[in-house]
Amino acid sequence: MACMHLTNAMSFRPERFSGAGKYHKPADFLPRRKSVLISCAGSSPESPPSKPEIELEFIAPKPENDGSYAVEKATAISGEKLLRSIMKDNKIELYATYGKLMNCGGGGSCGTCIVEIIDGKDLLNERTNAELKYLKKKPESWRLACQTIVGNKENSGKVVVQRIPQWKK
Ligand code: FES
């Protein structure tokens, strides 16, 4: 709850003399200032309503020596970013060797940012025209990370993504 701290608004009076001609400093003469605490109803600027968030898990394309897959995690505000940007912001590798050198920078024209959505497909946008072109013959769970918006500003939940190994693309 927001509060304001006000000071009692007494008018300032310069030096005064008491009846006997004695000088009194203003601090002796004026009443003490009082602090007043006022509560304000409604939302406070310190705590704006929180926006829905999407949790993301990124599974490595290849297993470790023990057969397990490394998982990296990130969180994003729903509907604000593309999957590619989220991975870039969190330093999560998206491209295989060729894509690192030759990707189109997120323009939807190279097809090197393909990922598989393991879980949470319903929290993403529909395939764009670029995806319909590049992924026409690929499984429905495959997406171009540069075309995939994570969340719709209202939903929240968890999306699990696996990077596709180069040999599968
Ligand atoms: S980065 Fe080129 S299609 Fe996604």
Search tags:
169 residues, alpha+beta, Ubiquitin-like (UB roll), 2 domains, 5-stranded mixed sheet, two-stranded antiparallel sheet, 4 helices, 9 strands, 14% helix, globular, disordered N terminus, binds FE2/S2 (inorganic) cluster
Characterization of this structure:
- The chain has two domains: 2-40, no CATH class; 53-168, Roll (Ubiquitin-like (UB roll)).
- 14% of the residues lie in helices and 27% in strands.
- The protein has helices at residues 26-29, 83-89, 97-102, 129-134; strands spanning 2-7, 16-17, 23-24, 35-40, 53-59, 71-77, 114-119, 142-144, 157-163.
- The strands form three sheets. Strands 6-5-9-7-8 form a five-stranded mixed beta sheet. Strands 1-4 form a two-stranded antiparallel sheet.
- The longest helix has 7 residues, at 83-89.
- The protein binds FE2/S2 (inorganic) cluster.
- Residues 103-104, 106-113, 144, 146 line the site of FE2/S2 (inorganic) cluster.
- The site of FE2/S2 (inorganic) cluster (FES) has 12 residues, from loops.
